[in-house]
Amino acid sequence: MARNASARSWRAWRKGSGRLSFSRMMTRLKFLGMFCLMLMGLHYLTLLYLNQGLRIIHNDSFTHVLHLNIRDKQISDTNGINHTPTYWTPFHRYMEKIKHCKKCPRVHKWEPYFAAYTEQLSRFRGRKVVMMEVGVQSGGSMMMWRSFFGCRFEYYGIDINPQAQQFASEWATIFIGDQGNPEFWKDIKKKVPVIDIFLDDGGHNMSQQFTTFEAMFPHVKSRGGVYVCEDLSTSYSANFLGQPLSNGTVQEYGRTGGKTFVELSKKMIDWLNCYFVSGDVMAASASCPPIFDGLPAVSEFKQFGYSLHFYSQIIFIQKERVIPPFHYMAGGYSFPYGYSTTVWDGNRYDAPAEAIIDI
Ligand SMILES: *[C@@H]1O[C@H](CO)[C@@H](O)[C@H](O)[C@H]1NC(C)=O
Ligand SMILES: *[C@@H]1O[C@H](CO)[C@@H](O)[C@H](O)[C@H]1NC(C)=O
Ligand SMILES: *[C@@H]1O[C@H](CO)[C@@H](O)[C@H](O)[C@H]1NC(C)=O
């Protein structure tokens, strides 16, 4: 009986005939409710599917990467030898999906980059993001990036091979030119918006990497943008105008000579600490001393060179306002630093409840 009644009112509702009685309204609500539940279920399943065993939880201060069941899944390298990945990321998922697809554009990367990309670039996912990549090659990485960043992704690709032009699309603009030529970059900067993520995966010789950094580091968004240079192994290869660390001893690692991108990034560590290089650990200088020399991009680094993230062969230089550091203190009760004979007054002091940040 009840089922018939509800089927009847469903038909009536579909036809749009009859006045809206209370019971019809309830039936409508039931259907709507079921529909919403179904949508929520689908949404949840999609999320599960997209993450495929990996969940990244953003938290005010932490990014938790949770590895679920596929933590130990093995992947094979270019020689068919199996390896355990650094850890599973959405990039691995993409790679495995296209692995046996003969007509898919090829992606060729060192495996540790995927964990590094995930850690450094996840905050851009799903947002409107402008990326510029030097080295379009066969159009493989641009597809991977779009799959990672989502449909609001905007891509600007640079390549020396005119064939790369064919990968232009609604979301991808391709420029053909030589990244080692400063004039080329002058022209590019007039044509593209400010960049969120710049990735140098081009010719990899030192002169190309330096010219590109000089020209484009200032064109990366000063608040929150990131400049990435990969395949830094070329800093050690004479074929790429780098210098091998011939015997790999500690002395050699400590050297400062050599105009290679790795040596430049070692210098950046001093730049990050520039307010303290005078030696007084408790008093930051009012301004950075003239340890910044050489590149025009350096004055940009002085203002916006916020943090460096090194991984094997890849560096992420994150931009954010750099301010002269200042002491920041709260609360009044304290021991002197280090060993002290000061006697505590016997009470225990806690922060007040309203100061506890509940997450
Ligand atoms: C946020 O980070 C804290 C500290 O690690 C952790 O205790 C808390 O569970 C995290 N919150 C979520 C939602 O993961
Ligand atoms: C390095 O790059 C520059 C600029 O693209 C190029 O002219 C030069 O031939 C390259 N040198 C080597 C050794 O690859
Ligand atoms: C390695 O290089 C350093 C610095 O040039 C040199 O002092 C050292 O003797 C070398 N070690 C070996 C084992 O060749």
Set down the secondary structure blueprint.
Layout: H1 2-15, H2 22-51, E1 54-58, E2 63-67, E3 75-76, E4 82-83, H3 90-98, H4 112-121, E5 129-134, H5 140-149, E6 153-159, E7 172-176, H6 182-191, E8 197-200, H7 206-216, E9 226-230, H8 250-253, H9 261-272, H10 297-304, E10 305-311, E11 314-319
Helix pairs in contact: 1-2, 6-7
Tell me briefly what this model is.
This protein is an alpha/beta fold and 359 residues long. Helices cover 33% and strands 15% of the residues. The protein is built from 10 helices and 11 strands.
Describe the structure.
- The strands form 3 sheets. Strands 7-6-5-8-9-11-10 form a 7-stranded mixed β-sheet, sandwiched between helices. It has a two-stranded antiparallel ribbon with strand order 1-2.
- Among the domains are: 20-50; 178-319, Vaccinia Virus protein VP39 (Rossmann fold), CATH 3.40.50.
- The chain is globular and about 80 Å long.
- It has 10 helices and 11 strands.
- Helices cover 33% and strands 15% of the residues.
- The chain is α/β, with parallel strands linked by helices and 359 residues long.
- The structure holds 2-acetamido-2-deoxy-beta-D-glucopyranose (NAG) (3 copies).
- One 2-acetamido-2-deoxy-beta-D-glucopyranose binds at residues 178, 180, 203, 205, 207-208, 241.
